């Protein structure tokens, strides 16, 4: 099975603090791949490296065989990489519909020159096609009743869904979900899990997800990787990862001496990975 994403020996340092140390893994085409780990384990750091917010101190990142390590973050959506954020990044003063339309921006072919020939160049048809795609996403995520609402006025669970909708609007082949169920109640989590599975199975998107809810991760993931103090300590199918003694130690808070490098200064535990 071909890798959509390949991470090779990625390390990330902030001064003397190591956020990631020689992390390597691959995400297969059409896979739902999850990353778990205690707070401060480096989960969001690896997503930020993939999306371009951070540049790795060492190592390489490949997307569909292309080296994207030094690529501008704004160029990555054009390749087919979309993401959501652990902390909501919506335009709170804009409507739900307009927030989702922002996700289509990089797909617009209309520019200054074609804008002056709007009707002749087919830009109007282009806009209608973008609107049609957005309406499909609104229907898929059951956002019809709030499509005209101001995003900032919505309950938290709905805002998380709107952010997923905006990431979907990019039409990514790989979507990075950073704690999509954080702060949700049980019913909201069930709905979001169903949407993520459908994204993977019906829309054919490759999904890489960070999530703290172990029950959800083990239920819907094809494979799971575990980070602790910026190092990979386990990777495999959910059942084998759950049974791994290193994983149990990490979640029970016991130090695993086999993984400790005396020369390393690991990142301290934080409230966000």
UniProtKB/TrEMBL annotation:
Family annotation (SUPFAM superfamilies): P-loop containing nucleoside triphosphate hydrolases (SSF52540)
InterPro entries documented for this protein: AAA+_ATPase, ABC_AA/LPS_Transport, ABC_transporter-like_ATP-bd, BCA_ABC_TP_C, P-loop_NTPase
Domain of life of the native organism: Bacteria
Pfam family, any one: ABC_tran
SMART domains: AAA
Start and end residues of each stretch annotated as Disordered: 253-273
Gene Ontology MF annotations: ATP binding; ATP hydrolysis activity
Entry annotated with the keyword ATP-binding: yes
Gene3D superfamilies with a match to the protein in the record: P-loop containing nucleotide triphosphate hydrolases (3.40.50.300)
ATP-binding in keyword set: yes
Biased composition (Basic and acidic residues): 262-273
Ranges of residues in domain ABC transporter: 5-254
GO cellular component terms, A-Z: plasma membrane
CDD domains tied to this protein: ABC_Mj1267_LivG_branched
Assigned keywords, A-Z: ATP-binding, Nucleotide-binding, Transport
Coiled-coil positions: none
Function: Involved in beta-(1-->2)glucan export. Transmembrane domains (TMD) form a pore in the inner membrane and the ATP-binding domain (NBD) is responsible for energy generation.
Protein known as: ABC transporter ATP-binding protein
Species: Bradyrhizobium jicamae
Biological classification of the source: Bacteria, Pseudomonadati, Pseudomonadota, Alphaproteobacteria, Hyphomicrobiales
